[in-house]
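Researcher: Predict the fold of DUF155 domain-containing protein.
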Amino acid sequence: MTVFISRIASLTLRQLSKTFASSIPDISPARTYFIPKKNDLFRIGQHLFRNYSNNIQPTTMAMDNTALPLKKKTVHKKVVLEDLKKKEGHYLTLAYATAYSYDLKALREGLLEQKLYEPGTLKAQEIGDVVVANAVYTIGDEPREIIFFREGAVVFWNCTELEANNVLDFIKQFEEESYPRDVVKKEREVMTYQYQPNAKRCHLQDQESSFVLVPHNDNSLERYTFSHAMAQSARLGAWEARLEALAADVRAHAAAMEREGAARVEKKEVVRKLGELFTLRHRLNVESDLLDTPDFYWEEERLERLYSNTVAYFTIPRRTRVLNERLSHCVELLELLSSWAADRHHVRLEWMVIALILAEVCFELLHCCERYLLDR
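Model: Structure tokens for DUF155 domain-containing protein follow.
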């Protein structure tokens, strides 16, 4: 009986060894994907080596544009505040994206308690996610105005940089998911505006980075349109900066793959990074109006044309498209790391099963030896 059990255990161990040996992929030459040097997002050299086993299926989230060259962040030429020439009749316009969203109700109450700005609304009833604040104390003939967007952006008209910084400190208590202050400063948009006596309609002078308003006229909707486009550009800049930070984390794992030929990464960390990328993609493509013109402008052909021209000036469509492509490449690499981590976990489980079987065989052999000695 003991000999029979030993033979069964030996045959089982031999069969498991053959199965495990067959599951190990053959060593084959690594496939080399050439990435153009000018489009090197992760900066890991000119070659990215990937070695897939025959048993690992391609990830289900593979993107259709993986064959496209990796694109860099599209950076439009930002206007620097220090480089602006102070011209007579030109006033400053600043746009910041400071958080994912604002609590407008609490913000309105805070402005009333502060008694420095009088909150109001635009004449159009369709615009509900915005608060317009006019300064109580005037400096000069031109009034100062601040437009707060629920999406976490604020635009200052005829306000100094010092005043803008004070307001940014004030609204921090009403922010949800605040952005880093250095990102807020770096991704701000700077423009000027002026009144032209002969102007019949508001328009954008892209060569001077200036908005042209009609004097002695109610330009509130035009101000809102210009502000909305500037806020969209600032928000997109903040998301681009967030992707840069995520790409920097992925870059370290990609460099380790190139250097060591293996990825030492935990699946939990990879899933967390994938969650951040999917959240960013959802906000970019679903929750924002960057892919299409907002509904408010559909019935206002004049404002729609103004909004489209301003959005084109800030290269928002192209930046959005490139950001989506860069997100796709980051997701593809993280899914590769996730498959790698899952495969390592399966290998560990197989070794644990083999170790348990070996332990059981050893115990059985000890029992056999003990019975043999007792029989003698």
